[in-house]
Amino acid sequence: MDEPVSDYVAGRSCASCTMCCKLLSIEALNKPCLQWCTHCDIGAGCKIYQERPTECRAFTCGYLAEAGIGEHWKPVKSKMVISRATNGNRIVVYVDADRSDAWRKEPYYSDLKSWSRTAAQNQGQLFVSQGRDMIVITPDGETNLGPVRDDQVVVARRRRRTGYAEIDHIVVDQSDPILAQLQLLQDAEAAKKATPGALAEAKREVEAWLASQDK
Ligand code: SF4
Ligand code: SF4
């Protein structure tokens, strides 16, 4: 979506790619994911480059930005676009519907499993966006969360079981007030700073909210 700049990995550029102009949604254009943007000159570039939305200007894919991501991830060949959220702790790999199983092939799958281990160590998350579904990848496996809208977020929740901790993932509307309580329980640093009363209240509210979701 952008022209080569100095902080791109040396030797990498958008060149004849334009994959992000298909795989990602663009809110300002009401463009859904997995459809070519009407302004895209496929394989060449953006026809409204000077006036393109801020979302497009701000986006740099993982292949361009991160030297640790191998050359095999070049989007025009892999048919996948790596997006890292602004806090850096959440990675989404968007997969072209024409090659929806591409992420399961090697060497991609081994990379994803390796990144999931790093994410788990850093309280991060790794997702594959396949079709309309969001799949969370963990060191132990994967869970299909189903469709996740742009105005929703996925919150990881650690639950104590006898002898082990289990993590499940919950899809929440960004506007839902329960999000703050879920995030308090998820964020180890925030939880350490919170009073016991605030934590207990957060747990009560979250349990009640989860029970209401099961109805
Ligand atoms: S997917 Fe990456 S390399 Fe391809 S056009 Fe978008 S930003 Fe450039
Ligand atoms: S406006 Fe341009 S840069 Fe943005 S998605 Fe469309 S073609 Fe790509």
| Strand and helix order | HEEHHHEEHEEEEEHHH
Low-confidence stretches: none
Number of helices: 8
Question: Which ligands are bound?
Answer: iron/sulfur cluster
- N-C termini distance: 43 Å
Q: Which percent range fits the helix content?
A: 25-40%
What would you say about this model in short?
By secondary structure, this protein is α+β, with helices and mostly antiparallel strands. The protein has a domain at 151-215.
Which key features would you list for this structure?
215 residues; alpha+beta; five-stranded mixed beta sheet; two-stranded antiparallel ribbon; 9 strands; globular; binds iron/sulfur cluster
Describe the structure.
This protein is α+β, with helices and mostly antiparallel strands and 215 residues long. The chain has a domain at 151-215. It has helices at 20-23, 54-58, 62-65, 75-78, 108-121, 178-186, 188-193, 196-213, and strands spanning 40-41, 45-46, 80-84, 90-95, 125-130, 133-138, 141-147, 152-161, 164-173. It has a five-stranded mixed β-sheet. β1 and β2 (45-46) form a beta hairpin.
